[in-house]
Amino acid sequence: MGKNAIVNEEVVLNLKALFEPASVAVIGASRRKEAVGSAVLSNLVSSKFTGSVYPVNPKVDVIQGLQSYPSVLKIPGPVDLGVIILPSASVPEAMQECVEKGVKSVIVISAGFREVGEDGKRLEEQVIRIARDAGIRVMGPNCLGLINTDPKILLNASFAPCMPSAGKIAFVSQSGALCAAILDYAQGENIGFSKFVSFGNKADLNEVDLLRYLKDDTQTNVILMYIEDIVDGQGFIEMAREITGEIKKPILAIKSGRTAQGAKAAKSHTGSLMGSDEVYDAIFMQSGVIRVDSVEEMFDYAMAFAHSPLPKSNRVAIITNAGGPGIMATDACVKCGLEIAEIGEKTTEELKKVLPPTSNFSNPIDVIGDAQHDRYESALTHVLAEPNVDSVLVILTPQAMTEIEATAEVIVEMKKKTDKTMIACFMGSADVSKGTKILEQNEIPVYPFPGAAARTLSAMSRHQVWIDRPRTGVKKFSVETAKAEALIETARKSKQRLLNVAQSMEVLKAYGFPVPPCGFATSEAEAAKIASEIGFPVAMKIISQKIVHKFDVGGVKLNLATKEEVKAGYRDIMAALKERKLQDQIEGLFIQVMGQKGREVILGMNRDPQFGPVIMFGLGGTYVEVFKDVTFRLAPVRELSVKRMVGSIRSYPILKGVRGQAPADTKIIIECIERLSQLSCDLPDVQEIDINPLLVYDHGKGAAVLDARLVLKS
Which of 75, 84, 86, 85 is nearest to 51 (CA)? Predict the structure, then answer.
């Protein structure tokens, strides 16, 4: 057994003591009803926790009918879980006593740590150091606590206002206040939970640890997360990929801070285009996590994922008793990427036998406003048997003759007879409430309007595609890493952070990028000589650490076809610089073979301080920061993820070819992104990379790097 396997086994054992303890000590239990220590103890008792509960308070002998102990060390039996609710300054001492007692896991509910400043941060570090030295895992501090509704456990080690009902949904959150609101919302919506976790400052246990436990939790079918930040991006991706892809449990996440603030002091296009939100989008895409924007959307999806089979494809049939809602549902489904299933001739003929002649027999199927439960039943029977249909959306609008409850019962019975996905839209609220309740009690997802239903089906369909995707690895190329490292070391010795285009091109050549013949000149004669050697026509541009926009100062010449034109171009550039008094700000001129006609894309990398290298791809050229048609992934990037990067930008049709234009060589784009991913992982001293433009030729004809620059870490 390897070291990582041993560590993971220890984590699982510690988390088992956290989620499934046989005994709990409430350190800071209180008689005062308004105290958090009173609420935690009361919740443990009222939830009918199946283990032993030990209040710890040196000032009283009995609390809520239970014997109280002056210290955790005085408890006669073993303690699996300690819940600490003390002033922050007293927590280190309490943690030390937990170590001496042999407590296996601890929840620190107390606030007053990192969130209040440097003094609190030092106190938090002291607490965690004590725990880690003893092998104790800690949840918190500054958290609401933990709930496990498993009938074998019935643990409510929190100060939440209520114990939720049992369900198949796990919810984990960094925000304790949000947890309290979610519990209240869920209670009103009859939503149950398997686990409910507020992990606060995550000074020790973080979201990856919690996912590791929930991965194998048989009580959990879907995992919901509220995330403010992720401390281990690659660890999160690996764990979430296993859960969503191999274990096939969906993960739905709300990530706060949707509005990107941009990268501070970025020196590249990539840096200016990449904000923290784009990084999280990349993390979620690479790990199969479904990102949602609201609590309502999260629970819309969660109820369907928890209780319904995934559709085998995106083909959906709509059954409705009103034309308008049927059209609304059709528009919503198409907008969400679903396919309106084609109803076969055989099914159409069967529908004509059981529905009125005024019905619509094509999809959406309109059973007409006077439809009662038997007409819905007939339509559902034949539509569910249609081979082109993989999911069904049943819409009901409350009309005078509508049998709302009976129709709900029909949907319940039909669900038992099919393995296809069924969801309902009972439009409205008060009139349809009894029917809605029947559906909810039988775990059939039901929505008040078609848009929410369509979004949910779309999310389920996308998750099935994620599960069925081919598994690919990270491609590796034979490259000259040592040569690239030597170039970077030379720049370091010259105290350069920004490598000029000539130096950058040499690094890219070492990694196999399609760099056209080029050279570096410091005189007119040298420029002419290089141009003759690499071949005409050529482009010529200044190299400068200080001049960013070379065109604006006359520092670029294109399509120079002879030695004489090169010499004249050299003189023109130098004259333009001298006129602006910029001649002392250049290092020389870069000469490169002119690229052929092609399509411009941009490749880039920015090394995020938390997650490491983030790769960017998109539409390139002069207007990259105007159109911002780019996408991101964390390196290393797998082969399938690279292909999806290329296909995900809005301007991808331009690469495919429009109006008779031949398709671009997307194969070389994919290869260049893979090479950039490898370079970024191999050379940690590189902070930013811009390849703009990468000029891509027609299919099979390759590409050329026309401009590039690398920025080193400061």
Answer: 75
Structure tokens at 639: 């082969």
* Mean pLDDT score, 680-686: 97
Query: 7-32 burial string, b = 16+ CB within 10 Å, else e?
Result: eeeebeebbebbbbbebbbbbbbbbe
DSSP letters, 78-102, are --SEEEE-S-GGGHHHHHHHHHHHT
- Strand ranges across the sheet with 81-84: 52-56, 23-27, 81-84, 105-108, 137-139
Average confidence (pLDDT) over 577-603: 91
pLDDT over threshold 90, residue 277? no
Report phi then psi at 508, rounded to 5.
Answer: -65, -40
Helix (H) or strand (E) holding 711: strand 708-712
Alpha-helical runs (H) found in 218-336: 233-241, 269-273, 276-287, 295-307, 323-335
Beta carbons of 214 and 223 less than 8 angstroms apart: yes
Residues 189 and 472: their CA atoms lie apart, in Å, by 41
Instruction: Answer yes or no: is pLDDT of 646 > 70.
Output: yes
Element spanning 691, H or E:
strand 686-696
Same fold: 3-144+179-195 with 518-594: no
Structure tokens at 355: 């529905």
- The confidence band for 229, taking pLDDT boundaries of 50, 70 and 90, is confident
Query: What would you report as the CA-atom Rg of the chain, rounded to the nearest whole angstrom?
Result: 32
- pLDDT band (50, 70, 90) for residue 169: very high
The partner residues of 67 in beta bridges, in order of sequence, read 62
- For the stretch 3-46, pLDDT in tens is 344 345 555 567 999 999 999 999 999 999 999 999 999 999 99
Residue 344 gets which letter from DSSP?
A: P
**Nearest residue to 198 (alpha-carbon basis) of 207, 188, 189, 190:** 207
Q: Residues 73-107: pLDDT tens digits?
A: 999 999 999 999 999 999 999 999 999 999 999 99
Q: What SS3 class is residue 577?
A: helix
Domain boundaries, the chain: 3-144+179-195, 309-468, 518-594
Separation between Cα atoms, residue 81 and residue 15, nearest integer Å: 10
The CA-atom distances, in angstroms, between 214 and each of 46, 249, 266, 466 are 25, 10, 39, 20
Task: Determine the CATH number of domain 518-594.
Answer: 3.30.1490.20
As a whole number, mean pLDDT of residues 429-455 equals 95
| Nearest alpha-carbon partner for 342 in 378, 316, 379, 314 | 316
Using alpha carbons, select from 549, 540, 539 the residue that is nearest to residue 589: 540
Q: Domain 309-468: state its class.
A: alpha beta
Which pLDDT does position 272 carry in this prediction?
Answer: 44
Task: Provide long-range contacts, Cβ within 8 A and 24+ apart, for 582-588.
Answer: 582/544, 582/547, 582/553, 585/544, 585/545, 585/546, 585/547, 586/542, 586/543, 586/544, 586/547, 586/555, 587/500, 587/522, 587/543, 587/544, 587/545, 588/502, 588/520, 588/521, 588/522, 588/542, 588/543
Query: What is the token pair recorded at 483?
Result: 């040569």
Distance CA 55, CA 65 (A): 10
User: How many whole angstroms separate alpha carbon 164 and alpha carbon 158?
Assistant: 12
| Amino acid letter, 369 | G
Q: What is the mean pLDDT of the chain?
A: 92
Express as a percent the part of the chain with pLDDT over 70.
95
Once rounded to an integer, what is the mean pLDDT over residues 38-55?
97
Please give the single-letter amino acid code of residue 387.
Answer: P
Confidence at residue 257, expressed as pLDDT on a 0 to 100 scale:
67
User: What spatial distance separates the first Cα and last Cα of the chain, rounded to whole Å?
Assistant: 40
CATH of the domain spanning 3-144+179-195, picked from 3.40.50.300, 3.40.50.720, 3.30.40.10, 3.30.70.270: 3.40.50.720
Residue 372 has pLDDT above 90, yes or no: yes
